[in-house]
Amino acid sequence: MELDIPFDLIVTVVDKGNCEAIITASKAAGAEGGTIIPGRGTGIRENKKLWGIPIEPEKDIVLTIVPSDRTQGILRAIVDAGDLNQPGKGIAFVLELKNVAGICHLLNQEATGN
């Protein structure tokens, strides 16, 4: 099924273990769910070492596909839940999706207005 309905991908990167608050907030704001991917990496404020050996902190990467008209509200909820306006708490950004497949239930909802 292909419809001309705009979708966005909200990508959120937070410390490992903080993804549940992000998923809960995004669902409460209208998202259907999200995909959690484990990752590693450091931000500008992270420079941890153990016995002189640099350690890359573990991260949770949350991918959330949302209809474009809901993006700002869901992003706002994610920023609040993750306290992302505070240094070292994480980052969230939005990518416009050109084509989406495999989310028939969302496409049907958007097409029928339900």
TrEMBL record:
PROSITE patterns hit by this protein: PII_GLNB_DOM
InterPro entries reported for this sequence: N-reg_PII (IPR002187), N-reg_PII-like_a/b (IPR011322), N-reg_PII/ATP_PRibTrfase_C (IPR015867)
Gene Ontology terms describing biological process: regulation of nitrogen utilization
GO MF annotation list: enzyme regulator activity
Pfam families, alphabetized: P-II (PF00543)
Coiled coil segments of this chain: none
Protein name as it appears in the record: P-II family nitrogen regulator
Species of origin: Pseudodesulfovibrio alkaliphilus
Lineage of producing organism: Bacteria, Pseudomonadati, Thermodesulfobacteriota, Desulfovibrionia, Desulfovibrionales
